[in-house]
Design brief:
Helix content is about 70%, strand content about 0%. It is built from twelve helices and no strands.
């Protein structure tokens, strides 16, 4: 049953002026907690730098740039899953169990401010580390410079933001931080399928391929591939107005998932520990 604790009404005149400093202050406190968590911080710092080395044999064996661009999209999804999704899932559950979320919610901060402040350090860290990973991948995987950086930025930013409500939705069915290892697995498996690396779309029936194409991770991979080499999943060049049509379509999928997740969180997020 969803907990809906009563909230005192904030002062209308003071709220707009204080909201940005309050968000920054809560985010700074969350960053301090992240720095003390060696497991989460180590994963966020090491994983993005190790992934290009894991795919180095693929480049040495003469893989095509199109295949390597698809691999890079997969690496972006992996980092987002562990640095944003799993870390935030653990953080939200831990803060709820310690009654931190409940105490913050009864103060002057809005619900959105409380949740956004918890997410901000992980989002910033993910964007920085993925940028370093991409820079490292250019010489290691012998990739050219990106053809359309805007598509890359949109795929990275929207993909990271989309995972925040997903982490909150998963937190609703997660009782403890330890159980997050289990409750996060279904989403991680499904999102990895969307990258097309584990199960290529050409091996699936047409209907299954269309379903996989609208998974949240599929547009992230598509935007990385399009932004890096200007190609689609079949390796065909995307030119002219088709580039912007494709970017708009993939961004629309990510925004739709983010909106759906936000609506679910708004109505059903649990602010108190599960009984």
């Amino acid at each position: 049953m969803t907990t809906t604790a009563a909230r005192p009404a904030p002062h209308a005149a003071a709220a707009p002026a204080r909201r940005p400093p309050r968000l920054l202050g809560l985010a700074a406190a969350e960053l301090s907690l992240l720095r003390r968590n060696r497991m989460q911080l180590g994963t966020a710092l090491v994983l993005p730098l190790v992934l290009p080395l894991m795919f180095l044999p693929l480049a040495n064996n003469g893989a095509s740039p199109a295949a390597l661009a698809g691999v890079l999209g997969t690496m972006v999804v992996i980092v987002l899953l562990f640095v944003v999704y799993y870390n935030l899932l653990s953080s939200y559950v831990a803060r709820r169990q310690d009654l931190v979320l409940k105490r913050l919610r009864t103060g002057e901060s809005s619900d959105a401010t409380v949740l956004a402040a918890t997410a901000a350090p992980a989002l910033l860290l993910a964007i920085v580390m993925i940028t370093l990973m991409m820079a490292l991948s250019i010489p290691l995987l012998r990739l050219p410079l990106p053809e359309n950086p805007l598509a890359l930025v949109l795929g990275l930013v929207l993909g990271a933001l989309m995972l925040v409500p997903l982490a909150l939705v998963t937190a609703n069915i997660t009782r403890t931080v330890e159980s997050a290892q289990v409750t996060s697995l279904p989403a991680m498996v499904v999102l990895m399928l969307g990258t097309g690396t584990i199960l290529p779309a050409e091996l699936l029936p047409e209907r299954a391929g269309r379903l996989i194409a609208i998974l949240p991770s599929a547009p992230i991979t598509a935007l990385v591939r399009l932004g890096w080499l200007g190609i689609d999943a079949d390796g065909a060049a995307v030119l002219g107005g088709d580039v912007w049509t494709s970017i708009a379509a993939q961004c629309g999928i990510l925004l739709a998932w983010a909106l759906l997740g936000a609506l679910i969180v708004r109505e059903h997020f649990r602010w108190e520990p599960r009984g």
